[in-house]
Design a protein that fits this description.
Shape: globular
Helix content: 25-40%
Number of helices: 9
Strand content: 15-25%
CATH superfamily of the largest domain: Periplasmic binding protein-like II
Length: 213
């Protein structure tokens, strides 16, 4: 099963018997396009499953959770960042996911909605391949701030501080799951999707900080 890096902890606990590959949703989409053997695809955005569905490679994608984009800073907060507007100050070192990854796409959308694209992108010192790397760079103090999901910030257990984004940033993220048509285990794939959508699956997701679909 291919899944977004932001889903690693919750899915591994929900079904420890499944074999997982976690990474950026865009990179996983590319692997499926290239014929990688996989039964289920869970993404941190509607875009990648929708693109695969349009090509007839997956069954109709289903939304199974929501997430929230937040700004994180190291616990010591060396750049004294108190709000999203502070990331545009000269010298602030910002890390975001690259544009093919949903967390990078959502961050860029937030910049656009807030009218800070030029100033924010000027401060980007690193673009990562998935949200886990963004969290790590901020937690280690390699950057002053980064954009990740609230679930990843929660999983970082006190290594980072969370700054919520204003509503006009439109920080809501949507997670979608789909069965891959070329997968060899269709019955197991459908059962896994049902497990994620079940009350047990939803309770596990919400305990990890995800919102209802």
């Amino acid at each position: 099963m291919f899944a977004a890096a932001s889903l690693k902890k919750v899915l591994s606990k929900l079904d420890p018997s499944a074999t997982y590959t976690f990474g950026g949703s865009g990179a996983l989409e590319t692997q499926i396009l290239q014929g990688a053997p996989v039964d289920v695809f869970a993404a941190a955005s509607p875009k990648q499953p929708a693109a695969l569905y349009a090509k007839g490679l997956v069954e109709k994608p289903v939304q199974f959770a929501t997430n929230t984009l937040v700004l994180i800073v190291p616990k010591s907060n060396p750049a004294h960042i108190g709000s999203v507007s502070d990331i545009t100050k000269p010298g602030v070192k910002l890390v975001i996911c690259n544009a093919t990854v949903p967390c990078g796409d959502y961050a860029r959308t937030a910049f656009k909605n807030l009218g800070i694209t030029l100033a924010a992108m000027k401060n980007v010192v690193s673009q990562t391949t998935d949200v886990t790397q963004t969290v790590a760079e901020v937690a280690l103090g390699q950057a002053d701030a980064g954009f990740v999901y609230i679930t990843d910030a929660k999983a970082a257990k006190g290594k980072v501080l969370v700054i919520t984004l204003p509503a006009k940033a439109k920080p809501l993220a949507k997670d979608f799951i789909a069965v891959v048509k070329a997968g060899k285990n269709q019955a197991a794939a459908n059962a896994f999707v049902q497990e994620v959508l079940s009350s047990k699956g939803q309770a596990a997701l919400q305990a990890a900080g995800f919102g209802k679909p």
